[in-house]
Amino acid sequence: MNTSPETLVKKIAMRLFDKKSTHIIALDVRGISSVTDYILLANGNVDRHVIALSREIENILLDEKMKPIHVEGIKNGDWVILDYSYVVVHLFLPYMREKYQLERLWSDAKVIDLNLALSHSSEKEL
User: How does residue 116 score in pLDDT terms, banded at 50, 70 and 90?
Assistant: First the structure.
C-alpha cells in the first residue's frame, strides 16, 4: 500500500459522499483498538445502495492493490463490513446503525475531519 491509511480513509469517504452515502464518520482508533487503526461508518438508503457502496470501496482499494481480509453482510445489505486490516468500513441501513450505535464503542476515538462538503464543492469549481 503506497497511500497512507488516513489518506485512504479520506479517499473512501469522498467516494461514499459522491455516491450519496450519508452520516459518514471516520474514527482514529489507534491505541484504543487492537484490531484496526481506522474505522469508517456510513449509511446507505436501501440494501442495494449499501451493497453498491461496498463494491465501490472494493474497487477503490483494488486500485491500491488491496484486497479485503474479510467481507461480511454483502448478501443482506443491511450491514456490510469490509476489513482491510488498517481500515475497517461499516456500511449500514439507518435502522441497523441506530440499533447497534457502534460510535459509542469508540467514544474515546479521535474523529477525523473529512471536510467532505468543502472538498466536494472545491472540486466542482475546478
Answer: confident
Taking alpha carbons only, the member of 2, 55, 57 closest to residue 24 is 57
In order of 1, 18, 29, the CA distances from 63 in angstroms are: 10, 18, 25
In the chain, domain spans: 5-125
Residue-wise pLDDT for 22-43, tens only, equals 999 999 999 999 999 999 999 9
**Which cell numbers in the block locate residue 27?**
474514527
The secondary structure of the chain, three-state, reads CCCCHHHHHHHHHHHHHHCCCEEEEEEECECCECCCCEEEEEECCCHHHHHHHHHHHHHHHHHCCCCCCEEECCCCCCEEEEECCCEEEEEECHHHHHHHCHHHHHCCCEECCCCHHHHHHHHHHC
Name the burial class of residue 59, with classes exposed (0-12), middle (13-18) and buried (19+) by CB atoms within 10 angstroms of its CB. exposed
Give the fold, CATH level 3, of 5-125. Beta Polymerase; domain 2 (3.30.460)
